[in-house]
Design goal:
Blueprint (H helix, E strand, L loop, with lengths): L5 E2 L2 E2 L1 E6 L4 H11 L4 E8 L7 H4 L12 E2 L2 H7 L2 E4 L6 H4 L2 H6 L1 E4 L9 H8 L6 H4 L3 E2 L2 H9 L3 E3 L3 H15 L9 E6 L14 H4 L4 E2 L7 H10 L8 E6 L6 E8 L6 H12 L5 E3 L17 E8 L4 E8 L7 H12 L15
Parallel strand pairs: 3-4, 3-6, 4-5, 6-7, 7-9, 8-9, 10-12, 14-15
Antiparallel strand pairs: 1-2, 10-13, 11-12, 13-16, 15-16
Helix pairs in contact: 1-13, 8-13, 9-11
This protein binds NADPH dihydro-nicotinamide-adenine-dinucleotide phosphate and N-acetyl-L-glutamyl 5-phosphate (X2W).
N-acetyl-L-glutamyl 5-phosphate binds next to β12.
Keywords: Amino-acid biosynthesis, Arginine biosynthesis, Cytoplasm, Membrane, NADP, Oxidoreductase, Transmembrane, Transmembrane helix
Organism: Anaerofustis stercorihominis DSM 17244
Protein name: N-acetyl-gamma-glutamyl-phosphate reductase
């Protein structure tokens, strides 16, 4: 049900955010406050129920002073045209039901509806999945690739931050069969906000500052997500994915290595990227030698990418960057909302980089 607020004569939608008090939830609030099609924003929390949002995040004083409400999915579904779920894994699958989806659209920023196979989810996430009856209708929301499928869905699985950067980087190479699919290695680096706002020893200043660490080698849960999406292009793909934690607030850099197939040259690779992305507003193809930097996309919905063909070893090396909280989470979620509701795709997310 659409609400009765108006902006410049247009009807606006009611939006709910479960997990508004987390990092991705708070960024959603920032974006949606300025979205022309959005009226009321209902804020859901876990630990701050009854407190004003601007008491939890004092940056929002006089901007969003609404009260944090209990994260009751049924109540949110009754009152909102779309509910964003910015919650830890395992929570969304318990509360998204067919009844809920009859009342509202759901955009889940977590992983519960990203993998199509429940066993794979339970194996990699080490937690039970409760949403079997709705999982099959979820659409993987990588906007530039899945735009047509996104339009009609009422359950949207927003991709992970590492996965957004990795899949968009590899898609043209795999789709055009330019690389040996058994040779893919993804080296990824993330800022600390990728771990969320929750208190965790590994995210403490002294644990991260002036230090870099590798983690999840061979076991990180984004591996099956990347493999599943790339395997949809035809052949089963298994690959190596290795994340690193670097001492910065935000940003993701992936450096991806793959052997090129016989006869593949630089122009073939360039043509492949141009074929899929030259008209994509939020993907910037940089020339060889113009290498991506996380600061160049800070605060934006942009993915910057550039490749080098290292002829000595017959390998293509693709470097890409995104802002993990934006294209890697919240602004991509709003891009998905725009597509789902038929709004202008850039509405509310057309940011200029905040370089410093
Ligand atoms: N951080 C990132 O860069 C990215 C995160 N994601 C995914 O988005 C989701 C949210 O991440 P992020 O914002 O970083 O996480 P945070 O830890 O910052 O926030 C988690 C939110 O969930 C709420 N919450 C915690 N436990 C429960 C519960 N049992 N029931 C209801 N609500 C609960 C918290 O409420 P309260 O604050 O009130 O305790 C908080 O609002 C996760 O699934 C994450 O994997 C995806 C891409 C990128
Ligand atoms: C730095 C850091 O800890 N990053 C997180 C990934 C955050 C994320 O994208 O979570 P999703 O699983 O919802 O995609 C991690 O490696 O677990």
């Amino acid at each position: 049900m659409y609400n009765v607020s108006y902006y410049g004569g247009n009807e606006m939608i009611n939006v709910g955010i479960l997990g508004a008090t987390g990092y991705t939830g708070a960024i959603l609030v920032s974006i949606l406050k300025k979205h022309k099609e959005v009226g009321n924003i209902k804020l859901g929390s876990h630990s701050y129920v009854g407190q004003d949002f601007s008491d939890v995040y004092k940056a929002f004083k006089d901007i969003e002073d609404g009260e944090c409400l209990d994260s009751d999915m049924n109540e949110f579904a009754d009152e909102c045209d779309v509910v964003f779920m910015a919650l830890p894994h395992g929570v969304a699958s318990k509360v998204v039901t067919k009844e809920v989806l009859e009342k509202t659209k759901v955009i889940d920023l977590g992983a519960d509806f990203r993998l199509s196979d429940i066993d794979t989810y339970e194996e990699w996430y080490k937690t039970k999945h409760y949403g079997e009856d709705v999982l099959s209708e979820s659409v993987y929301g990588l906007c530039e690739i899945e735009r047509e499928n996104i339009k009609g869905t009422r359950l949207l699985a927003n991709p992970g931050c590492y996965t957004t950067c990795s899949i968009l980087s590899l898609y043209p190479l795999v789709k055009e069969k330019l690389i040996d699919i058994n040779s893919i290695i993804i080296d990824a680096k993330s800022g600390v906000s990728g771990a969320g706002r929750k208190a965790a020893t590994g995210s403490l200043f002294c644990e991260c500052n002036e230090s870099i660490k590798v983690y999840g080698i061979g076991t990180h849960r984004h591996t099956p997500e990347i493999e599943e999406q790339l395997s949809k292009l035809g052949e089963d793909i298994t690959l190596s994915f290795t994340p690193h934690l670097v001492p910065m607030n935000k940003g993701i850099l992936t450096t991806i290595y793959a052997n090129v197939n016989e006869g593949v040259g630089e122009s073939d690779i360039k043509e492949a990227y141009e074929k899929y992305y030259k008209d994509e507003y939020f993907i910037r193809l940089r020339e060889t030698g113009d290498l991506p930097v996380t600061n160049y996309v800070k605060g934006t919905n942009i993915l910057d990418t550039s490749f080098v063909l290292d002829k000595r070893v017959n390998r293509v090396i693709v470097s890409s960057v995104i802002d993990n909280l934006m294209k890697g989470a919240s602004s991509q979620a709003v891009q998905n909302m725009n597509i789902m509701f038929g709004f202008g795709e850039k509405e509310g997310i057309d940011f200029v980089p905040m370089y410093i």
